[in-house]
Each structure stands twice: as C-alpha cells, then as structure tokens.
C-alpha cells in the first residue's frame, strides 16, 4: 500500500471517530498468458484518483464502503494500456484490498461484484485481476492473505460467462474449499479412533473453552516442529494445565490393513506431549472431504461449542490469538 492511501485511510478513520493449497488445473497466470495478446509496459501513473467521500458518511464502515464501491470509477477496462499493465493493476488492487478490513462483508461482496463485472470488458485484464487477487488473498505468506476476502473474487470467477468450464474449474475448486469450515461456523463433525481403539467424534470430544484441532502426520518434519513450538510456549502450556485449552491431535495416516486398536496407537518416537489428546482419523474424514488439508500440519482453533475461530492457521497465529484473548479476558486473581 502506498503512502498516499495510508494517509487517506488514517484520515478516513480519524474523521469517522471524531464525527461520531490446489487442484491440478491450469493456473490463472497460464490462462492469462494464453489469452493476452500484449502487455503494456509499466510506464503509467501508478494510482487511480481516490473518490471524494460525501460528508454525510461519518462511520468508518460507511466511508470505507463508499470508497470500495467507487474506487474503480475512473478506470475503463477497455483501456488495455492500463487494464493489462501488471504494475498498474497490482498497485491499485493492493490499494483497493487495503480497504477491505475497514468495510463490512456485504460491502466487500458488492464492491467485488461491481469490479469484476467491469473487468469483463477485457478477458486478459479480467484474468490478470483474478491472478493478482489470488496472489494477495490466497497465498499463505502474503501479509494480506484472507480466505474471507478472497471468497467474493472466487464467487465471481466461478460463475462469469467470460470463462469456459475448464477455466472455471480452479476457482470452483478453491471456492468449495474456502466455504468449508469457515470462521464462525460449526466445524464439520468426523469420527476418529482413540488410542484405546474406541470410536469418538469431534463434536462429542470434551473440550475446554478453547480446542486446538491439529491434523498431522507423525513422519512430517513440519509437524514435529509445530508440536515443539506449541509445547514450548508458556501460555499454551499454562492454559492446557489450567483446563482452558484442549488439544486434539488427529493422525491422518490410516492403515487399512491393521486392526483398529493398533492403527490409533502413537508410533514409537512420535509420542505427543503430555496432556494432548491423540486420535487417528477414520477413512470417512478423507473420503467425504470434510476438511481440506493443504499441508501438514493443519490447525483449527475452535471454541467450546466447536465453532471455528481460526481456520488453517499457522502455529504462530494460534499462539497470537491465545495471547490476545488472555490479554482481553485475564483470569481472575485467586
């Protein structure tokens, strides 16, 4: 985000407060390369002019929503000198996406619908825009990564008449994955085997106010690193000890040849820390595609009613969320 928009966002908020992981399908970059005939050089002025916000709009949500709805008013996607220019489009899309955290979900959805409708004037430009949205909102190491912000773009590209069925296959796959176990919804129930060989379900698993659901593979190096990182954290261990946190670690390796009682037992050298609940996924977890597991480990933070708080989170994100909650809701002194 450039300095001009940073200052504008700050003024927007100050004025308001004072006034009141993929399928084997063609990537978007490949589709764009096949569709585009030429790309203009990056020689344009980098920023679209920001629309003036009516003085009657006072709250941060109102002002951000208006700015989102009118951000692209001065842009014609038929002007391929700009609409096919990667540098120009990337800079302005980043500015545009920087407004998303300040606007409600309905306003974001409406704004993306308007934007993608306008972009249908030129297919290479449309594909460039979709590719950039995926880069910033879907890529795990992007500071703007947000599945909730990405969903409106996927909804548009999955149904646009501009693309054929093959071109829509990837956004449809990503959309289906994004709509599973969204934050705020109840996590999908599934069956797992306990170390004793019994069957248990996620929803019937006794839980503290917070439940960390971890899908892992005992042979996975990243899994062992994540387990070590979580186990070494002081607050994490204290919450586990105090009964404020439950950890349910589900081994996704399922041996169809071995008896149920043995397949759920931790393997030698891969034991979980004390206090963690171990389980082995039943085949239905993967067969029914209840969860998308883009990498190992995959972490979900749930509340006591099994509502999703964090989806496919990094260990650092889980720890940061627990720190934030502990700061906002400190334990009463004994």
From TrEMBL:
Alphabetical keyword list: Signal
Pfam families reported for this sequence: DUF5106
PROSITE patterns the record matches: THIOREDOXIN_2
Signal peptide feature range: 1-23
Protein name from the UniProt record: Thioredoxin domain-containing protein
InterPro entries: DUF5106, Thioredoxin-like_sf, Thioredoxin_domain
Domain Thioredoxin: 181-328
Gene3D superfamilies for the chain: Glutaredoxin
Highest taxon of source: Bacteria
Organism: Bacteroides uniformis dnLKV2
